[in-house]
Design a protein that fits this description.
With 359 residues, the protein is an alpha/beta fold. The chain folds into two domains: 152 residues, Rossmann fold; 198 residues, 2-Layer Sandwich (Dihydrodipicolinate Reductase, domain 2), CATH 3.30.360. Helix content is 31%, strand content 24%. The chain has a nine-stranded mixed β-sheet, covered by helices on one side. Helix 4 links the parallel strand 4 and strand 5. Helix 4 packs parallel to helix 5 and helix 6 packs parallel to helix 9. The radius of gyration is 23 Å and the shape is elongated.
């Protein structure tokens, strides 16, 4: 196979970007095979921009047309599992947009079906995994640079959305339309990165507020706490009502700490010796220096790494990786089965009181 012919299901914002990348020849080993959308206006748009590309208003017809080798699902979230399964049934490779779905049961059904088709490529569009900053962060953690993880803390509140954003479409921020709020639409990338880099927690405790600061049915404020198998803990906070937003990710290990600011800078603080050893051997005189803010600079070293990453590059990287896996078996950056990991039930106490435990 020289080029993978991609069928784009949904010519909205994301689908439009991907069509543009392909039409401009920016994605190696991939071309547009066909476009599908149920909106007549999108048919006119496609005819204007991509006159030589077949257009369908029924995705099953597109799957059975012979025009595509693979598809990407740029449609409402709850349709992702269904479309992924229907593609795989017809021996067509599937790249599913995030989130993999709205309901865990449906995503699991997609994963289970994909497992029966090992000869096909099934991937999910977790483009942040191609971000050089987060690839470096994963490398640091996997190599044991700061030792065993003790705590994670991610404050990601840069998802500000005004009321007008939600009011522009009846389906937005509804259970029937999008199937959730900030956890489904904005934060899945960070939830994926968190488990990809630090591992899956064994328990999640969450306080989730629905319509807290916006007139919507779904969640716009989330505070979650994690318990990990090794005893480590984690905190994850996100919302859509902080116009001053913060993006700060801290990982504490027994040999140091890593802080990521604004998804642009990594600060690595490496302890000269493991904290447990410092605790058992440090003299009280040196301890007092730490208490007084006069600690010896030899206690730790610091390194700062800064990154730049242009918008769109990550998306193209995922598409190229998807194509490469189809053509020559290059390992996937984000296997489709990983799509089930970022989800946890958006449940809270109606009175805003104690935090429920979710398993």
């Amino acid at each position: 196979m020289k080029n993978v012919r991609l069928g784009i299901i949904g010519l909205g914002a994301e689908g439009g970007y991907y069509a543009g990348f392909l039409a401009d020849g920016k994605v190696e080993n991939m071309v547009i095979g066909a476009i599908c959308d149920i909106d007549p206006a999108k048919k006119l748009l496609s005819a204007e921009k991509y006159p030589d590309i077949p257009f369908y208003d029924n995705y099953i017809e597109m799957l059975e047309s012979g025009d595509v080798d693979a598809i990407v699902t740029c449609v409402p979230h709850y349709l992702h599992p269904e479309m992924g399964i229907e593609a795989l049934k017809r021996s067509i490779h599937a790249l599913v947009e995030k989130p993999a779905g709205v309901y865990t049961k449906q995503v699991q059904e997609l994963n289970d079906f994909a497992a029966t088709k090992p000869e096909l490529t099934f991937a999910i569009f977790f483009n942040q995994r191609t971000n050089p900053l987060y690839q470096k962060l994963k490398e640091l953690i996997d190599s044991g640079e700061i030792g065993a993880i003790r705590r994670t803390n991610w404050l990601i509140t840069t998802w500000w959305r005004p009321q007008g954003y939600y009011d522009q479409s009846e389906w937005r921020a509804t259970w029937g339309g999008e199937g959730g709020g900030v956890l489904v639409n904005q934060a899945p990338h960070q939830l994926d990165l968190l488990q990809w880099i630090c591992g899956m927690p064994k328990k999640v405790y969450a306080n989730v507020k629905y319509g807290y600061q916006r007139k919507i049915a779904v969640e716009d404020e989330v505070t979650a706490m994690f318990d990990y198998e090794n005893g480590a803990t984690g905190v994850f906070v996100t919302c859509t009502h902080d116009v001053l937003g913060t993006d700060r990710f801290e990982i504490l290990g027994d040999k140091g700490k890593i802080v990521v600011d604004g998804s642009k800078k990594i600060t690595i603080k490496r302890l000269a010796k493991p904290e447990s050893e410092m605790s058992s051997t440090m003299s009280m005189q040196d301890v007092m220096k730490i208490f007084m803010g006069q600690s010896d600079s030899n206690i730790f070293s610091e390194e700062v790494l800064e990154f730049e990453n242009a918008w769109g590059v990550q998306h193209i990287s995922v598409m190229e990786n998807f194509a490469a896996n189809i053509i020559d078996g290059t390992p996937l950056i984000a296997p489709g089965s990983d799509g089930i990991h970022p989800g946890f039930p958006p449940t809270h106490n109606e009175d805003g009181g104690s935090i429920p435990k979710l398993k």
